[in-house]
Design goal:
The chain has 204 residues and is an alpha+beta fold. The chain is built from three helices and ten strands; from the N terminus they run βαααβββββββββ. Helix content is 28%, strand content 36%.
């Protein structure tokens, strides 16, 4: 009898050596704000409906913006509005309507690619693609054997960061009562009786 399979997903955070045009973040926030306002005004929670009703208008308004940025903005707008509506129903929403102020951009597989052999990232921007170096440590080596999915481009005070989701299908085996937890800054292993924690400082 074959062991059951399960897909494991992990998120890797990479600091980026290089720059992204500010216009990409400002345009994305503008597009997302318009989508979120429309979703709120019309009560739209469906990604497909929001994309169908707003894509062509936004594409014409921002012709230099790669089209898939509008797709991912539609996804975020629907997600935020649905969360806001739930909070509103419970009386927990403080604001009158939903809003988004973070310096974050959602990327799908058309908007970025990774080269983990050369530790480089290619990200779509207006008018082309930006090539950036991935700052990495020993912790990141395991992601070479995994499949990359979507990612988030984050702008912070110290520069830019890419948070990418990786997946891998593994066989489930019967536990022997011991466990290992590998994180960016530490490795923890042991059993119910004793746990050992080793700091790696990889994420520093």
């Amino acid at each position: 009898m074959k062991a059951p399979l399960e897909t494991v997903k992990l998120t890797a955070s990479f600091k980026l050596d290089g720059s992204i045009p500010e216009s990409l973040f400002s345009t994305y926030r503008e597009v997302l704000g318009q989508l979120l306002g429309y979703a709120w005004a019309k009560g739209v929670t469906s990604f497909r409906r929001l994309k169908a009703e707003k894509y062509h208008e936004l594409r014409a308004r921002h012709p230099s913006l790669p089209s898939h940025y509008i797709y991912t903005a539609c996804q975020i707008a629907c997600s935020i509005y649905k969360s806001f509506r739930k909070l509103r129903r419970r009386g927990l929403a403080k604001a009158e309507k939903p809003f988004f102020k973070k310096q974050v951009i959602m990327l799908d597989d058309h908007l970025f690619s990774l080269n983990l052999e050369g530790w480089e990232a290619s990200i779509a921007v207006q008018g082309g693609r930006a090539k950036l170096k991935l700052l990495h440590g020993t912790y990141h080596e395991k992601f070479k054997e995994m499949k990359v999915g979507q990612a988030w481009l984050v702008k912070a005070e110290g520069g830019f960061c890419l948070k990418a989701v990786f997946s891998k299908t593994v066989e489930l085996v019967e536990s022997d009562g011991k466990a290992v937890d590998v994180n960016e800054n530490n490795v923890a292993f042991g059993s119910m009786e004793r746990v050992v924690n080793v700091e790696t400082k990889e994420g520093s």
